[in-house]
Amino acid sequence: xxxxxxxxxxxxxxxxxxxxEVQSAAAPGDxxxxxxxxxxxxxxxxxxxxxxxxxxxxxxxxxxxxQKCVSKVWFPCGNTSSKDVDMPNIECVDNAxxxxxxxxxxxxxxxxxxxNDDGFCVQVRAPPRPRVSGLLGAEWSRAG
Length: 144
Prior knowledge:
The protein is of the alpha+beta class. Helix content is 15%, strand content 29%. It contains one helix and ten strands; from the N terminus they run H-E-E-E-E-E-E-E-E-E-E. The longest helix has 22 residues. It is elongated and about 95 Å long. It starts with a helix and ends in a 21-residue tail after the last strand.
């Protein structure tokens, strides 16, 4: 009887440890093994890739302010579907909006922003105003 009680206590302890590990989802860059004991947080679009938690797709970026992966410019957003995975409500990087496209919506830079080489939207800078040159600053002299 005592031996059964010890085994039962060990089972309960192991059960609670495994439940805790499943519920404590890993963050980006954390090691994972893809088994039940160490999942990444799919609600934040993190998946176990190459034994580390990373955004589900390479075209995504982990936004530290929003604490989830977001799509870069020209990539799918909104409710997306691919052969790999169905992703609900994928947002775009800062200063981009989810624009209708076919077959899925795509992230596009908002007005006043343009895409940089990394797929983010940066503010368009107005060209510098040209310097006005003229006769106002010229010195004139009169001979004689």
